Amino acid sequence: MESSKEFKALIRECHKAKERAYCPYSNFRVGCAVLTEDGTMFTGCNVENACYGLAMCAERNAIIKAVTEGHRKFQAIAVGTDIKDKFKGPCGPCRQFLVEFGECDLYMVKPDLTYMKFPHDLLPMGFGPADLLAEKI
Ligand SMILES: O=c1ccn([C@H]2C[C@H](O)[C@@H](CO)O2)c(=O)[nH]1
Predict the structure, then answer these.
(1) What CA–CA distances, in Å, run from 95 to 1, 12, 19, 92?
(2) How much distance in Å is there from the Cα of 135 to the middle of ligand 1?
């Protein structure tokens, strides 16, 4: 996967998406690129608002675009910030969003375009679709 043309494009597109972040309040740019099962790519950036609580993360914007266009299965997702080394990964709500669409490879992209793979257990003991199907009283 990591040596494929598609993967290289994923890293590049994630970086480019970060350039489009609208974050005048936090000045914290985030970009995301999602590679779907069939090789289609979607990107997202964070979009903030004067009403601060309305800020929407890059990851959720990218996933919402993919799902809206009919893609629910992902091969890989890349998330990039301007942090040099210590970006610990997506925020809680974005982890919940990612869990909804199943396991896929997640990469953190540094400003110099180097990347690292994220551990698979994004949301230990997380609530997911299966919980809604569990036997109830
Ligand atoms: O995983 C994350 C964490 C934060 N942000 C955005 C939200 C806000 O615009 C800014 C600062 O929290 O970064 C993301 O896009 N993704």
Answers:
(1) 22, 22, 22, 5
(2) 36
What does the pLDDT read at residue 119? 82
- Length, in residues, of the chain: 137
Q: Is 77 helix (H, G, I), strand (E, B) or coil?
A: strand
Least Cα distance to 112 among 84, 77, 75 occurs for: 84
* ipTM above threshold 0.85: yes
- Sign for the CA dihedral angle at 101, 106, 110, 114 comes to negative
Q: Dump pLDDT digits (tens) for 79-89.
A: 999 999 888 88
3-state secondary structure of 4: coil
Report the CATH number that the domain containing residue 87 is assigned in CATH.
Answer: 3.40.140.10
Residues with CB under 6 A from ligand 1: 23, 26, 28, 30, 46, 48, 55, 57-59, 90-91, 94
- Residue ranges, the chain, pLDDT below 50: none
Tokens found for residue 81: 């910030």
Considering its fold, how many domains does the chain have in total? 1
Report the predicted TM-score, pTM, of the whole model to 2 decimal places.
0.95
Residue 23's domain spans which residues? 5-133
